[in-house]
Specification:
- The complex is a heterodimer of chains A (about 150) and B (about 375).
- By secondary structure, chain A is α/β, with parallel strands linked by helices.
- Chain A has a single domain, classed as 3-Layer(aba) Sandwich (Rossmann fold).
- In chain A, about 40% of the residues lie in helices and about 20% in strands.
- In chain A, helix 1 packs antiparallel against helix 5 and helix 2 crosses helix 5.
- The radius of gyration of chain A is 15 Å and the shape is globular.
- The relative contact order of chain A is 0.22.
- The mean pLDDT of chain A is about 90.
- Chain B has a domain of about 260 residues: Cytochrome-c3 Hydrogenase, chain B.
- Chain B contains 14 helices and eight strands.
- In chain B, the strands form three sheets. In chain B, strands 1-2-3 form a three-stranded antiparallel β-sheet, covered by helices on one side. A three-stranded antiparallel β-sheet of chain B has the order 6-7-8. Chain B has a two-stranded antiparallel ribbon with strand order 4-5.
- In chain B, helix 7 packs antiparallel against helix 11.
- The chains are: A alpha/beta (about 150), B alpha+beta (about 375).
- At the A-B interface, strand 1 and helix 2 of A face helix 2, helix 3 and helix 6 of B.
């Protein structure tokens, strides 16, 4: 494994964006970072800047207003990048499937690598999803290094 | 404004994606050097159209949809929806169910206030306090999980009562959990009350005079921090009429006062839950009604952020004619815009957080700018 890949996996920086969820998944993502679950022990740091992030964590369904913001955030992130859809509504639209302003899951707007189900997704599941995303990131990173 | 035209101002956006706000709200600030001159809010990033979906769904399934308007005060949304339908169908709610609803509503409030106190500490840059409060909050989430099997969504409310009962073991767990939480809060509360750096960030910031608070229609802890004793729990819905409840108010009209209101309400909620558990009668928890709602009803209850208003029209079928929901953050946004004027850029996060914005609640409306379109 090259040094760059090693460094990326040692401390993945997460960008969190709320697309229109009920806040349930958002508070669980924050709970995953706080002492009981403590995702920081894996080097996972929540960062507000898309230009420094490796992992985009999105909650909630895409809608007609925010899909542009989501696309822009995704485009601003440097390669390699991994997208994680947290919660049922980010994956498929879920309970908001028949709401008139929603487009459905976020995969209608940007490519998604990891889906985390649950309404709201539990912190354990979210950390599990991040671990899966890291495997993907490592593959992408090695491909880039070659 | 004639003077403003000759001066040079900077305009910068705050949001929709910002480290301080977990939710997408955009505020456009016009600043003169460091001082804020004008604030323009820009909403609609999480508008989903839930009110329309409520008309499309079976009215009984709406309980779960209303719960997902906001994950933080989910139980209160479900409770308020059920109460409104019960008012239309004249359903009688059993006494035990009324007390159980009160207990869970207060548990939601505890969860929400602890969450807010933590986020507020983080907004001030006090990260260790944030971590400590969120660790204490896990006690409440564990109780929620023991009750309903899920950490966030309780989903225990039903039309005509509740779907889950509490046994002796669970009640004992509630009592011990809450006394543990009270001890933990005793350690944290002095930091919010007396710490010099917290006071420097909160005292005298974001002043909302009493008369302006009433005029602009602020609700919840925002108006109670300006010395107005307005709380929907005094209406005595569910079991609140029997629990000897008095609202908490502070008079200093600033961010500090609003923080103190929420801090005191944490203790008050613990007391209310304990009192409700003491007085809880035995009996059935659900009275089933087979009638479809036919008629109109309104309902007001107090959420952690203030008054929520439900208006439902039923037409005697399985679908509802209209559901209208006004959530507490919406009336709190005009006061927020006034509070921010004249403050420095560094004060933005504590002042914005002081109204406890919950954007996913608020997005019930969209503004269409005809000229721009």
């Amino acid at each position: 494994m090259k040094t760059k890949t090693k460094a990326r996996l040692k401390s993945p920086w997460v960008l969190h964006y709320d697309c229109g969820s009920c806040n349930g998944c958002d508070i669980e993502i924050l709970a995953a970072l706080t002492p009981k679950f403590d995702a920081e022990r894996f080097g996972i740091v929540n960062i507000g800047d898309p230009k420094q992030a490796d992992l985009l964590v999105v909650t909630g369904p895409a809608n007609r207003r925010n899909h542009r913001v989501l696309k822009r955030l995704y485009d601003q992130m440097p390669d390699p990048k991994v997208v994680m859809a947290v919660g049922t509504c980010a994956s498929t639209g879920g309970i908001f499937h028949n709401c008139p302003n929603t487009l459905g899951g976020i995969d209608k707007v940007i490519p998604v690598d990891v889906y985390v189900p649950g309404c709201a997704a539990r912190p354990e599941q979210i950390i599990d999803g991040v671990v899966l995303a890291l495997q993907k990131l490592s593959e992408m990173s090695e491909k880039e290094d070659d | 404004m004639s003077e403003n035209k000759t001066k040079k101002f900077t305009v910068f956006p705050f949001g929709p994606q910002h480290p301080v706000l977990p939710e997408p709200l955009q505020l456009k600030f016009t600043v003169d050097e460091e001082r804020i001159v004008e604030v323009v809010p820009n909403l609609g990033y999480v508008h989903r159209g839930i009110e329309r979906a409520c008309e499309l769904n079976d009215y009984r399934r709406n309980i779960y949809l209303c719960e997902r308007i906001c994950g933080i005060c989910n139980f209160m949304h479900a409770m308020s929806y059920c109460e409104t339908i019960e008012k239309i169908t004249d359903a009688e709610v059993p006494d035990r169910a009324r007390y159980l609803r009160t207990v869970w509503a207060e548990l939601s409030r505890l969860q929400s206030h602890l969450l807010w106190l933590g986020l507020f500490a983080d907004g001030m840059g006090f990260e260790s306090l944030f971590m400590q409060l969120w660790r204490d909050r896990e006690i409440v989430l564990e109780l929620t999980e023991k009750t309903a099997g899920h950490r966030i969504h309780l989903s225990t409310c039903a039309i005509g009562g509740v779907r889950k009962d509490m046994d002796e073991k669970l009640i004992a767990a509630y009592r011990s959990g809450l006394s543990g939480l009270r001890r933990k809060m005793d350690a944290v509360a002095p930091v919010f009350r007396n710490d010099r750096s917290v006071k420097a960030k909160t005292e005298g910031k974001g002043i909302l005079p009493k008369s302006r608070a009433v005029h602009l229609g602020a609700v919840g802890p925002t108006i109670r921090g300006s010395g107005v004793s307005q709380d929907m729990r005094t209406l005595g819905y569910e079991a609140y009429g029997e629990l000897d409840f008095t609202p908490i108010t502070y008079d200093s009209e600033d961010v500090y006062a609003r923080t103190q209101v929420r801090l005191d309400e944490v203790y008050q909620s613990i007391d209310l839950i304990n009192r409700a558990l003491d007085q809880m009668p035995d009996g059935p928890i659900l009275s089933k009604s087979t009638m479809f709602p036919d008629g109109t009803a309104i309902n007001r209850i107090e959420q952690p952020r203030g008054e929520v208003f439900y208006y439902v029209v039923g037409n005697g079928t399985i679908h509802l004619e209209r559901v209208r929901i006004r959530t507490p953050t919406l009336p709190n946004i005009p006061p927020l815009l006034e509070m921010l004027i004249g403050h420095e850029v560094a004060d933005i996060p504590p002042i914005v957080l002081s109204i406890d914005p919950c954007i996913s609640c608020t997005e019930r409306i969209t503004y269409v700018n005809k000229e721009a379109a």
